[in-house]
Amino acid sequence: MEDGQQKEKVKPPGFLKPFSLMKVSGRFKAHQDSLPRLPVPPLQQSLDHYLKALQPIVSEEEWAQTKQLVEEFQTSGGVGERLQKGLERRAKKSENWLSEWWLKTAYLQYRQPLVIHSSPGLMLPKQDFMDLQGQLRFAAKLIEGVLDFKAMIDNETLPVEYLGGKPLCMNQYYQILSSCRMPGPKQDTVVNFSKVKKPPLHITVVHNFQFFELDVYHSDGTPLTSDQIFVQLEKIWNSSLQTNKEPVGILTSNHRNSWAKAYNTLIKDKVNRESVRSIQQSIFTMCLDAPMPRVAKEEYLSHVAGQMLHGGGGPLNSGNRWFDKTLQFIVAEDGSCGLVYEHAAAEGPPIISLVDHVMEFTKKPESVRSPMVPLPMPRKLRFNIMPEIKKDIEKAKQNLGIMIQDLDIRLMVFHHFGKDFPKSQKLSPDAFIQVALQLAYYRIYGHACATYESASLRMYHLGRTDTIRSATMESLVFVKAMDDSSMLENQKIELLRRAVQAHRAYTDRAIRGEAFDRHLLGLKLQAIEDLVSMPDIFMDTSYAIAMHFNLSTSQVPAKTDCVMFFGPVVPDGYGVCYNPGAAHINFSVSAYNSCAETNAAHLARSLEKALLDMRALLQGHPWAKL
Known about the structure:
The protein has 626 residues and is α+β, with helices and mostly antiparallel strands. Helix content is 42%, strand content 14%. Helix 4 crosses helix 17 and helix 14 (429-445) packs across helix 15. The protein is globular and about 75 Å long. The model is unreliable at 1-25 (pLDDT under 50).
């Protein structure tokens, strides 16, 4: 659905100086307590920004009507003021007035399947395995790398990240391991097992749809080395060669209400209940996948993206997952690898920091050969498949098959330039890419649309995200001018710079907690909580248009040459994610085949052309550079 966005100046973890407060005992708590609380923006300010953001995406009549509703809403002593006061009271008595509401509305009450609709996938560079042992050796090294990162979380020695010189909230790092989402009839829950009396010491390994509990710590508390983990993975591999098992894991890909029902049936059986509990409590999951069907070279990246996002369907690797698990690493026999994560616990950046750490770790040579101590056989998790559950599995397979058929996902490596080019022009790389997206969309559809880019609120205690709205009047004026032959080139350059600067300014405001999207959501939820009849401003056509994000986008930068991806958030929309390197940019673009108006490959081509045209414009007139 969305992902944290970090400004270009952020140093990745590992190069950060730890925050001074972290030296005291209870370092994590001391650091967290020192962070400012998320403010409630002034009502007038948010409503002014809202009206401004509507201009490029609604008609003049709709805008005039909304302006009237906004004025009524904010009259002195009116409903707007009352709701604002309610929010301010909530902010005074809670650690973060938004975080609990956001977790519920954006994730736990969301009933669509997690697969494609909510959980992002990530593709890592392809590995070159010489043999089967290669797959297991790499998986073992990867597991050891995650345990190395976990040690920093457990010892609270994880370096604090900074943004523009300010320390960021590190809470999400403490949520991604040993946690799991659990289905409920109307609302799910997320449970974190790292803080219980006896925290989990095992991971889940899945191979051929069969689940295993693998202890990754010795009795003295030291982690297994990758050599030892490799031996254990070999045992798992050898004892799960038959694929004729029911893919129980596929149940987790279903619509949340259907899965909640099947879940209750499944755990009535004691054996099943214990197996499910072991998966839920594990530190994370390692999926050892079968190879993907061979595809043409140009299709390969997009196929791997599908593999990471949904597993390719029932007959392939979708049964090799437990989609409720917060973190699942995937290593396939053919060298394709990556992960899929359940979004309720965290945004992209903490996942990326973990990935960057692990990928660096996998390159380290083994320091010493570890002694081969006899290790117990990993425990196979058994499932009793009653006829009712078998029916649920078949249904989940069918539903997932339909969803996979409907997803159109394209990965594009833009080789012509990376973030160094916009920087050389004194332009923000993220804003430059976002303006290019606006141009690409406008050229296809002839109008602007509501565009979501996520901004990180981690400057605040327990901060998650707010929305950067990339469709601005400045971007609309530029994209209209770009292909207008009557306009002078230097005028176009001036408009391009203004569009990029407007986006940069919006980003800065959003990161400071001054965007309007979460504030409006808060006012709306406050009205529901106060049992006030829903204010007209939220029942308005403009509001519906503003919340229908045809472009849902996210910048997820990484040191690793990888890319994240997710499905569109509306049936007629696109999901776009990108990782800008110095000299190239990795893009993912998704759309639904069932929508005749959208086409992922078409948007990817249009985006490539937009970026090249914008570069040519700037390079053609170097004298207009500054």
